[in-house]
Amino acid sequence: MPSILNAATTSAGKLRDFSAAAGHSGIRIEPLPGLRDIPAPEEDQPTFEGNARLKAAYYSRFAPDLLVLADDSGLEVDALSGHPGVRSARYAADAGFSPAGVATLDERNNLYLLEQMKNIAAEVRTARYRCVLAVARGGEVLAIGEGAVEGSILTAPRGDGGFGYDPLFWLPELHKTMAEIDPAAKNGFSHRGRAFSALIAAMAEQNEKM
């Protein structure tokens, strides 16, 4: 098994989640060197796996000796036919939704989601977070891991932790949102933690290539 995976993301939240997920595996997560100088690829695939594979293969060509970790993840809301899905990070921007006084991308996305769901009853606000992780080297994808967590969407945000849609994503078994979970415990419930566990298993099967 490798000792280091170089993550192709500039998101501090994702890096934190990946590091937490890798905590007991003996694998260290480090940012991909020079990532900010590499032009981002167009994420034009219709599925999370397609985009994760695309990014892992793309970024690994810029560092052919390293194992590069890439992800695609997002929120699927059943009442919205699975949207925002692969467009989760761009949900508000795609719709041209940019209310005055709303500073961050996460805030805009959350407000737009609430607007889209304002007439949807509580019992049909079911949703899931989904994540696919891919590891590649030299342009070749070597392993894939997928994870999901089921929940529902609240009518107002709760909690100051996490990022993305976490303040709206309610976990019924915990009676908390993802943003209210202690960071140390989040790994056991998060889609990224589950995807990383699946990735570790897949990497073990591909150990000779690693």
TrEMBL record:
InterPro entries: dITP/XTP_pyrophosphatase (IPR020922), ITPase-like_fam (IPR029001), RdgB/HAM1 (IPR002637). It catalyses: ITP + H2O = IMP + diphosphate + H(+); dITP + H2O = dIMP + diphosphate + H(+); XTP + H2O = XMP + diphosphate + H(+). The keyword Hydrolase applies. Keywords: Hydrolase, Magnesium, Metal-binding, Nucleotide metabolism, Nucleotide-binding. GO terms for biological process: nucleotide metabolic process; purine nucleoside triphosphate catabolic process. Coiled coil: none annotated. Substrate binds at T9, T10, S11, A12, G13, K14, S73, F163, G164, Y165, D166, K186, H191, R192. Homodimer. Pyrophosphatase that catalyzes the hydrolysis of nucleoside triphosphates to their monophosphate derivatives, with a high preference for the non-canonical purine nucleotides XTP (xanthosine triphosphate), dITP (deoxyinosine triphosphate) and ITP. Seems to function as a house-cleaning enzyme that removes non-canonical purine nucleotides from the nucleotide pool, thus preventing their incorporation into DNA/RNA and avoiding chromosomal lesions. Belongs to the HAM1 NTPase family. This is dITP/XTP pyrophosphatase. It comes from Paracidobacterium acidisoli.
